[in-house]
Hints:
Elements: H1 2-5, H2 18-28, E1 36-40, H3 45-58, E2 63-65, H4 74-84, E3 89-93, H5 107-116
Parallel strand pairs: 1-2, 1-3
Helix pairs in contact: 2-3
Amino acid sequence: MAEFIGCTRDELALVRNxxxxxxxxxxxxxxxxxxxxxxxxxxxxxGEQPWxxxxxxxxxxxxxxxxxxxxxxxxxxxxLFNDAITPRTRVMFFSHIPTVTGVVLPAKELxxxxxxRGSSRPWTAPTSWN
Length: 130
C-alpha cells in the first residue's frame, strides 16, 4: 500500500476513522513550547480538538484562519494562510472540505504554500468524517 500511495512503510498508518488519525498525528509530532498550529475556523471538532489538547499541554494558543462565508476563490484562501504563517508555524492543518460550509479548499495549492514556507510534508485531513 505504501508504494501505491507514494510513501514509505514508516509513513503509513491504518486507522479506523479521521478523528483517530487526527489524534495520532496531533499527539505524535514532536512539538515544542511556542510551536504554532495554523488551522481554519471551520474545522470539525474531531479534527480540531486533538490539536487544542496538544497546544494546551504546550501552553500555546495557536492560530485560526478565519475563512469568509462564502469563500470567494482559491486565491483568497491562499492569501489568508500566507498572511497567517509566522516563524513559529510548524503545522498547517485544514480539511479539504470543511464541515461548516462544505467549500472545497485548494488543498494542492495550500500544500505547495506550506512547502514553500519550509514544511517538507504537509498533511490534510480526509474529506470523509465517519
